[in-house]
Structure formats: structure tokens, C-alpha cells
Design a protein that fits this description.
mainly alpha
Length: about 140
């Protein structure tokens, strides 16, 4: 992305190269710019990037109170040990809808609670078994040929 001042400098440099008997396509290729971009910049020198700079928030974004309700439900005595994939169906059986499963995961992750939630031990990281190396005959036997 180039600023207006950088664009002006590039246009000036290419114009100087053309005045010194260089071809426009070769001058643009030397700086990695297409000829069409240069022409567009020359026609509209005063205009900058026309894309909107504001960040739009989704209209269905959860409010703070709804996020707190999701966290309170996920941390309650009844659902505290369950994953969101089990919480949402149980709430549906009760006729309650708070948020979808992915929203539960997203809110828990934002609150740094997106870790192992079950009563069993968390999964341990396994390492590769060390490689065996035979340095002489009859030191290593294997049954899978």
C-alpha cells in the first residue's frame, strides 16, 4: 500500500526515466509496478485509498450481559465440568437457548477458559519412541517384515 507522497515520488521517478529516453514499460517493470497502475495514479493524483477505514461490528454481536450469561452458564455447578458440545444439547432439552456451540467456545476462549473441562485427566503430550539402531548382526529383531 502506497501513500500519496510515495505515489508522487514514483510518478516523478518514472517521468524522469522516460525523459531520459527509457521506455515506460521497462521503467515500471524495474520498480515492480504495472503500467496500468501508473496511469491510474497519474489520472487521479489527489485521491488516496478509497476503501472505508471504519471497522464494522456485526449486528448480531453478543452484548456484555449475554456474554456474562454464557460464562455463568458454562461455569455453573450443573455444566461446569462439561464441554460446550454437551452443554448446548442439554440446554436444548430443557427448552433454553443461550447461544450456539461455537459461540460458547468463542466466549470461553476470550475469557481464557477454553481449556480441558472434563473430569478426566487432560491429554498428555506423547513423544516419539527412541529409534533403535543395530550396530552388529542379531542385535535387533522385528516381527513385522
Amino acid at each position: 500500500m502506497t501513500t500519496l507522497t510515495q505515489r508522487g515520488q514514483i510518478i516523478t521517478m518514472v517521468s524522469e526515466a522516460i525523459a531520459a529516453d527509457a521506455r515506460q514499460d521497462l521503467a515500471c517493470a524495474a520498480i515492480g509496478l504495472s503500467e496500468r497502475t501508473l496511469q491510474r495514479w497519474q489520472n487521479t493524483q489527489a485521491r488516496a485509498d478509497q476503501r472505508p477505514t471504519r471497522v464494522q461490528t456485526p449486528k448480531n454481536k453478543l452484548s456484555q450481559s449475554e456474554r456474562e450469561q454464557v460464562l455463568a452458564t458454562a461455569n455453573s455447578e450443573e455444566f461446569g465440568h462439561l464441554a460446550p458440545s454437551q452443554i448446548v444439547p442439554r440446554l436444548a432439552d430443557q427448552g433454553r437457548y443461550i447461544a450456539c456451540e461455537s459461540t460458547f467456545y468463542r466466549v470461553l476462549k476470550a475469557a481464557h477458559q477454553g481449556v480441558h473441562r472434563g473430569t478426566e485427566r487432560p491429554r498428555k503430550k506423547r513423544s516419539k519412541p527412541r529409534a533403535l539402531c543395530a550396530t552388529a548382526p542379531n542385535q535387533l529383531f522385528s516381527w513385522d517384515q
